[in-house]
Amino acid sequence: MSRMSPISALRIARFGNEEEGSLTIMALFFFICMVMIGGLSLDIMVFENNRTRLQNLSDRAVLAATAMNQEGDPEAVVRSYFDKAGMSSNLAGIQVSQGLVARTVSVQTAQPMRTMFMNMTGVTQLKAQTNSTAVEGMDQLEVALVLDVSNSMNQASNVPGMATKLDDMKNAAKRFIDVIYDNADQGTVSVTLIPYNTQVNAGRDILEALNVQLDHEQSFCLDFDDTDYGAVAMNTSKAYSQAAHFDQWHVNEQDPVVTVCRSGSNQEIKLHQSDPEVIKAQIDALTAHGNTSSEIGMKWAASLLDPSTKDLVQQLSSNGVVPNEMSNRPLDYDVDGARKVVILLTDGINTEQMRLNNQYKNGMSPVYETVNDGATETYSVNMRSLFNRASGSKDFWAKSDCYLGICWNDTWSQTPTLGWVASLLGLNPNYGQRQLTWQETWETMNPRHLAWHYLVDASENSQDYYDFLDGLWSPVSGATKDTRLLGMCNDMREESITVYTIGFEINDHARDIMGRCASNANTFIDVTGDDLEETFASIATSITRLRLTQ
């Protein structure tokens, strides 16, 4: 048996204890890792460069093939682009959809690439795949134009030659209508005009088609509740409540000045119109008053573009309210070549709206009307009935002395009074007296006027003013309106309804809400007066222009 010499053993021990050169080994290891990482990055860079070139080529090809003004075969146009680029082998598929006034072209590509460094990790090939789709025009277009006609639209305009912001909006909206219809074939475009302020006057025809019980004939708005804002569709089986006709603002004026629901056919919705002149005439007739309730305007817009109102539109078409060629509107969401677009314009934030509580919308009121001299109306209020107080000898408070339109001398009386003229003539105390319903009361007297100039005058207690109004109506705050609006906007996005929002000289809060309501960042436009007309025109063009969709 051989034995290791002492010198060899010493050398082996010395080698085992030797530390010189260990860093070189570690550095070599890290160097190899760096080379691998760099190689992987290089493979990815080459792959991404190839994919980008392929995507750009594909996008150019579909845009050229989709253009309606080129008469060549769309598929041949696509192939010519790839042939000239020497990449025809990368074409995986071409689809062409041709409509009456629309064309859609889709292209799929694939390009395999052998890896140089990734193969060390087992990945020998990467495949670049792209999809491009372009569309120009559409077979059918449904537009809802939701326009702010609140009182702030009467403010001065910044545009030379325009008196008010309302004038700016009218000109811009009419140009939009011209562009939309000029770019479309007859019968392919319908526009629904929805003016809004504190409320939206849908018009008698729409309310009757919805089987709404009409409590009055002064105006035709609906009171939507929270559940109504939870869906785009209109629940046509629901018993909707007609909004009361009253003035929520004025105190000293007895007669209504501005009502929550505006009256007049010039304030009503125009539904699915095919004649641009009809829409433009309605736009010209708009006037501005009241607060801002954009969520109500958007609820109507969403529902009138939703197929749930198809039966309603067919009924209105048979009555001549909607043109016959639009009797099939609103179209189903899955109709090829169809598009639904909402354009919402506002110049400010949502503001408070008062809704009358049900007990003050119908039934008899404690207010009595009397004609004193053949021309002057006097009102007496049964205070015991109104405040549920114990009966006294004199329960009625009235401006009892009236003549030729002038009333004075507030007084208590046992019955509704005719005043001193009637007494002087010896008329029967009940002659010409009539108890009013609540709706008749609000048609002739403002709630705040009744509260201050009758109730407080009688009780000499100003708290009665606030107590009465607190029980009379329920406020809908601007914050609640914002929440409802954003919910509607989200629901419309889910149904592929494109929402454009236009902020017309708005503040930061309104800018935030309008930006969040729009379908995307590109469909919110913040403008000043001199840009408004061009904004509407560009939206009209964008709806029908050649564009990439994928």
UniProtKB/TrEMBL annotation:
This is Putative Flp pilus-assembly TadE/G-like. Keywords: Membrane, Transmembrane, Transmembrane helix. The chain crosses the membrane at residues 21-47. Residues 142-383 form the VWFA domain. The keyword Ligase does not apply. The keyword Plastid does not apply. It comes from the Bacteria. The lineage of its organism: Bacteria, Pseudomonadati, Pseudomonadota, Alphaproteobacteria, Rhodobacterales. Pfam families: Tad (PF13400).
